[in-house]
Design brief:
heterodimer; A: mainly alpha; B: mainly alpha
Amino acid sequence: MSEVLAIVLIAAGLLFFAAGSIGLLRLPDMHSRLHALTKADNLGLGLLAGGVALFAGSLAIALQLLLIWLLVLVASAASAHLISQHALRRGRGQ
Amino acid sequence: MTDAHWIPLDMLLAALLLGLGWASVATRDLKRGVALFIALGLLLAVTWARLRAPDLAMAEAAIGAGIAGALLLAALRDEDRAVLPDAPIGGPRLWLLNLFCIGLAGAVGWGLLDAMAGSDGIRLAEVAGDHIPDSGVSNPVTAVLLNFRAYDTLLELAVVLAAVLGVLSLGPARPGFERAGPVLGGLVRWLSPLLIVTAGYLLWVGAHAPGGAFQAGAMLAAAAVLLRLGGRADAGLPAPGALRWLLVAGIAVFLVVGLAVIAPDRAFLQYPQGWAGGLILLIEAAATLSIAVALALAYTGGRPPGWETAGRLSASPSRREGQ
C-alpha cells in the first residue's frame, strides 16, 4: 500500500519537475521563468522526497530527507529572490 | 533494480558528462562556460555516487562544483578590472597546446588501460581491504588516505599550501561585497552555523563513514565564502597572525606526528597499534582547518589586510615601533 503511495508521490513530483523545466524553456520573460522554475521544482522535490522516504520506510531517513528539502527550499527561495532583484535593478526584466 | 536496468541511465550520464565538458570549453562566452562547468561538476558528483564512491562524490560536489565554481565566478567578476591580453591564442601556439592535451589524454588513457587490463599481480585494493582493521578507522577511504598512503596525503597538503602561497603572492585581497540585503543576510546568518556544524560532523564521521578532512574543509570554506558574499570582507577568517598558523597547521601536525612515531621498529608515519585512530583524528582536524583557510584565502584572492606585519615572531607592538 505504502509502495503504491510512494510511486504516486514520485510520479507527481516528476510531473512538477517537467512542468518547471518546460516553463523555464517556454515562458517569455525572466521573472515568469524564475517563478515557474522555483515554485514547481520546490514542490516537485518535496513530493519526490516524500515518495523516497516512504520507500526507505525509516523515520531517521525520512527526517533527513525533510531536512534536505527544507534547506533546498530556503536556498532556492533566496537565490530566486536575488536573481530577480538583480535583474530588476539592471532593468532586464523583459 | 538489476545492473541491466541501470545501463540506459549510465549511458545518459556519460553522454551528458561528455557534452557538458565539451560545451564548457567550446563556448566563447566565459560566463556560460563557468555555469556549464559548475553543472559538469554536479553531474560528475552524481557519477561518482553511481560508481559507489560517496567520498569522492562529496568532495567533487563540495570542491569541484562548489568552491571551484565560486572561485571561477569571483575571477569572472574581476575580469572587468583586470588587464587581459586581448590577442586570443592562435596559430602554432594553439596547435602545440592541442598536441600537448592530446598527448596527456593519451598517456592517462594508456595508464588506465594498463591498470585495468595489463596488470595481473596483486590488487592493492584487496591487500588494503584486508588490513583495514589494523588502520584505526573503519572507513576504507580514510584508512588508505591517512594511514596506508599517508605520505601521499601529506604531499597533497603541501600542494594546497603551495597553491595558496601563489595566491598570496598575487597582491592584496579583492575588495569585498557590499552589505547584503535582508534576504541574503538572513540566509547567511542561518546557513553559516549549519555549515560549521556539518564540517565538524564530516570530520568526525570520516573515521567510519564517507567524510573526512577534505570534505569538512570545503564545508568550512563554504561558510567563509557565504560570509564574504554577505558583506564581510574578511570572510569571517581570524586575524592574519592566527591565519598564518592555521594555514600550516595541517602539514605541521602531520609532520610532527609522523616524526614522533619513529622508533627502532617503526618508520616515518607508521602509527603505533592502538594509537592510530586518535592520531588520524588529530591530523585530520588540523588538515581540515588548513584546507578551509587555504580555500577561503584563495576565494578572497590575495593577502588579507595586515598580512605583512602580522605573525612575525618579533611582532610585539613595542618591537615593531623600533623597526
